[in-house]
Amino acid sequence: MGAQKLSGPDDAAESQATLSAEIEEIEASHSAAVAAGKPAETQPRLDYPPYRSSLLRHPTKDPRHADPETIELLSPAFGHRDIGTLESDLTVQAGGEPIGERIRVTGRVLDGDGRPVAGQLVEIWQANAAGRYIHKRDQHPAPIDPNFTGVGRTLTGPDGSYSFTTIKPGPYPWKNHHNAWRPAHIHFSLFGSEFTQRMITQMYFPSDPLFALDPIYQSITDQKARDRLVATYDHDITEHEFLMGYNWDIVLTGSNRTWMEEEDHD
Amino acid sequence: MTEQNPASIGAVAGDTATRDLTATPGQTVGPFYGYALPFPGDSELVPAGSAGAVQLHGVVYDGAGVPVPDSLLEIWQPDESGTISRATGSLRRDGFTFTGFGRAAVDPEGRFSFSTLNPGPTEAGKPAFISVVIFARGLLNRLFTRIYLPEDTEALAADPFLASLGPAERDRLIATREADGSLRFDIRLQGEDETPFLRFPGHGD
Question: Which of A98, A170, A205, A264 has an alpha carbon 20 to 30 Å from A255's alpha carbon atom?
Fold first, then answer.
């Protein structure tokens, strides 16, 4: 590649202003619906046109109601044989110290009744401090950090707690539209006590200036729901002369199994 | 409101009164899961070619009928006798333990393939199925579905959930048994022949 910019099908010509107008319109219509008495949405819309990649990848039919059956009322079991002890510390996995702001992200995984999800697998992946993923498809011309893979795994404790030591990821550009940038985030993959609770999401950092511009974050049309993806800076987690601390608790969908068990015992 | 880390399980009931217990929203898996979520042996619930091993395979399509090259599937199922494994070790398979869980990223042509067992029914008279969750770039939240085995036509016909679907939709949840014994199940995220996806109680979306 020379200095001249090549044009091709990946070139995103639409402006942020175009995208932001779409985002604001959807947000306003959701607010109006809530004002008229509809419940606020709590999950992202699957049909969210500002996220252009969703156009052909969202179902158009309503999901079918299903009562979970036996297999769905349990989750795969993971244990200490599944995970190395160092996998929750992303700063010690390669040869040396990765570059960037060392952080700890810790919190609890709860079910919809407030019960801790104990002994379950939590997986994370993220860009490095410069906003670059190790992934070969990431073409962002920012440096790869040879000491940072950005991949972590852990098991929750008896109280549902998890903790990762890592580097604060940087924002990075993507091709949704011209000059599109994702707010800094960490991908989280979570299992509950039943398979119906399986989910993957993204954790964000407080006060990111890119929030208003990002169609993935904004696909959750209700501000209060979006806020649930934003970690809280917590000085009690911050360690003297070592790292900055963030707290982020995750609530999975309600557990059908625990309700049924309770009914059985009543 | 900044919450301190509650220290004990005993605090749960008291916690619940003040805590926001609305489910945390999902987000797309994005394009870069490939170096994080796949693991060696992820799609081999049993070693390929071992006794009883069955290939479960198919293609993930978008609304234009184009294969989706950046999708990830997980399956969760009982063994042939309908027993649900409580064994750990999916991430470090030993080649002998059936954990019931598998994960497969699709290939550049949208194809996925698992090596697994035919699941048995977990309850007498119920049709056997494999539980599936689907993630993809461009898909803002996970999708759940089921892959039913085609053989037990009596149990399939008697199943109340399948009966709640139209005949065409019902057929889309039943895998095809191919001549080589494999199970074929394509996933269509959008369109006329869209795969029926499931909403379980408690799902806010």
Answer: A205
